[in-house]
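User: Predict the complex.
Assistant: Input components as received:
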Amino acid sequence: MSELTLFLIRVAYLAILWIFVLAALSVIRSDMFGARVTNASAGQPAAPPARGKAAPARAPKRGVPTHVAVTTGSNAGVTVPLSQAPIVIGRGSDAAIILDDDYASTRHARIAVSGDQWFVEDLGSTNGTYIGSVRINQPTAISLGTQVRIGKTILELRK
Amino acid sequence: MSGFTPASSMPVFVHRSRRGAELVLLILALVVGIGAYVAVGLGVQEKIPVDLLGYGAWLVVLLVAAHIGVRLMAPYADPVLLPLVAMLNGVGLAVIHRLDLALAEDADKFARQQLIWMTIGVVLFLITLFLVPDHRMLQRFTYTAGLAAVVMLILPMLPFIGKTINGARIWINLGPVSFQPGEVAKVLLVICFAGYLAVHRDALALAGRRFAGIDLPRARDLGPLLMMWAISLAILVLQRDLGSSLLFYGLFVVTLYVATERKGWIVVGGLLFAGGVFAALTLFSHVRVRVFTWLDPFKYYPVGDDGVTSSGQLVEGMFGMAWGGMIGRGFGSGEPWRIPYANSDFIIPAIGEELGLTALLALLLCYGLIVERGLRTAIVARDDFGKLLSVGLATSIALQTFVVVGGVTGLIPLTGLTTPFLSYGGSSLVANWVIIALLLRVSDQSRRPLPTAPSDEDLAAEETQIVKLDKGAMSK
């Protein structure tokens, strides 16, 4: 095979190599700038706009939550100010809200803030953390009055 | 009661799934990998390799399987990681094949084995994605992983199954094949460090006394970690595996620094490292040899004054890269087989000789991108454990690449480690595929759109069931 052919093969191969690298870079670039930015206030981005009946626009609750309260369960009545966030909830002695609940784990869940949105995050508990009947598997936004269930305990954010 | 009433106007990034982009990049990666194989055939044998169809089809099947697995099991995962890894693995296979052709005792001995290892790697990649639907479940195995890592590191020292190859006792015999359990231990240690620090990072950063500008953590917080690290390092030093010791030590310092956000750890880590190097220099002759041949390689080429110390491997690699120049000699026109172990530790000089600096820069850039994607995953991860896990995994690839590329180019003393994904070496390849699977898993979890809390109507519908059930249970 001639020198020239070998040279062309070599150059062509290097070109392919760099085309791949540049393509990877452009995907990374589009991934960075092409991500859709939504406002959390726009509501639920994933939800289809029409759900049978037109949901009336809910007026946001006035005021910001200041503490988290246990409403149901053997620790009902316990409140902890949100200024201590992140608040760990569980049976362990290092938890901010120590639950006397056989279905709660030592470090069960955590309530934390991001911006001015509060989130509840399950810390890999055995029996799970529920909002409504949905077991959460990622940090989930909660607001005033959202009932978070841990074992037999229900907590909510209050003003 | 009220449901989810979003009160903030905080912007939220909604990542797209990007599986289409991944597929396009994968096809390009396949072109690069199979193209290298064709170029090797044309350059070395002057014909298109006869088994091109079979070989190409095998690669296509493997990568399409990996892609479909990601589509099904981690749809929001990072789109660039898998193609980058596929490309590096493909190029590695072609270069190993090229070296096999040159050595020609048993043509394709190593390339065929590497392809088998790659298949095992992809299968384990898929199994990992399947078995770990949520990376946070790995946090439960913090101490189990630590213990398993230590056991893995001890295995090669046991009689019968342990095996010494090239002066390092880091292998175990598994019937026909040898395996380096240290590579698996690397992944386990990352999980262990991340799991431990995710829980104890506050205690490590805040509790404790301040001394000479550095916050010293309490012994009971640091103790378990330090013990684990000391055990692994001691084992590695006993096994004379310098590269892995360096890797584990670096992992430890980086994860600790990221977890505590205390710069003091870098200082402490650096000082301890300097002390360790000094001790190793005075205690171990094999460390001295490495440093001397690094400081003055040509004095020991082909052998030094003592007739034993040799820098042949290092210098042959440098000759190769120098001869390769900007665009290399071309496949088949170089003589990379002159470098001992060109297909494992010294694959970078072999590529530098035949493809030149242009290709080496492209490959190094790819490693940089893999690490960048790992760290980006850590930034967007929503939980501490995920952050620390992806930092640890990305660091392990970064350090491994740095140690081996720095070693063969003469930047740092040479220590034996495989180049991730490129080098011949089954244990390392398999372990790195698992690392990528874990990174994709964390990435999928963190790029997935936030689940929204159920709406008022949903909650109202559920309320009767849930709350009343609880109340009923309590009144009993």
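Chain A touches chain B through 69 residues (CB under 8 Å).
Let me know if you want any component modeled separately.
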